[in-house]
Please model this.
Amino acid sequence: MQQRIFQKDPMILFNKDQLVRHGRGLVLRFQNSRKVLHTSVAGGGIRRDLEAIFNFDLKDENGRCELREKTYKKELERIAVELGLDPRFSVGMTTAVTMDDVVVEQQESHGLSVAAVVTGGIERNGGYPGDRASYREENDSFLMLGGTINTMVIIGADLPDGILCRAAVTATEAKAAAIHELRLPSVVSPEIATGSGTDGLAVVSDPASPLKRTDAGKHSLLGQLIGGVVRSATKKALLLHMESHDTDMTRMSNRLKRFGVCKESFFRFMEKNDKLERSEMIWAQAEAMPELAVKASMVAAIMDDMRHGIFSEVYGMNQLKRQLFPDGKENTFPNLWYEFLMRIGDIAE
Model:
């Protein structure tokens, strides 16, 4: 559920831990001892002495994300102090997503409860494993990119260290599945993203719980609950954040953007064909046709199958031509798509 969380009105989770807003930050305050796996560079790892976890929106009043300290580690420690926390006993993550867009999901089954707290945005830094790097770390340098999916998973059971790590794997798979369901692209390659390059994760277990669990994989009930709450919360958080960004996957252009299909390249294609004066009309018309988004989805699926070796290039291109031009057409993608749009424009006239 998406719910505004205020400093004077904290959200109480199933285990009595509290989610509290502090300005641009969201703090998860523990009410009892917890065992935590956290990805932070400042105090991350597996910890048993933490009092709180925070998620902080780094954007200033001008919408910029800039560090005030020389290193990201020092910046996180400074944020902890500003949030009223002791940096020795708290860990955090940052984002460029407002805490107004946080989503909290909780599920319970057979006495076992799990919650997920997620903020998400990958419109500027969505990525796929093996994508070309955006930066190289040198001397504690840090590059802040817009977006990030930050996830806190709270588990009402006692987990051994290894199973805490396994829970993190399940949560990460669930995040990637949510992004795949929304078809959100990598900004570097033609792939569907699996996350951003700056995602943060915390998994919290309860060492005092009478429930002892030794499996957090997908076959277990615990894995089911982790996957369910993380996948649901991630999708809702991304959709909530995307309302103010051009990422609507019901539009033709967004379906094919990761393959290089965009307004600018279409205009260049039309100029080469001496039809530039019709470009704006055809493009606007295509963007307003839901059936073209459906067609684009089929085209994207064929392109993915070709790239991943399921279809050979010859077979895949033949299928593309059959989808776009049943009467036959010799060309390459994306020119096939652009010529298809030209034909749509001719029919409309």
In short: The chain has a mean pLDDT of 89.
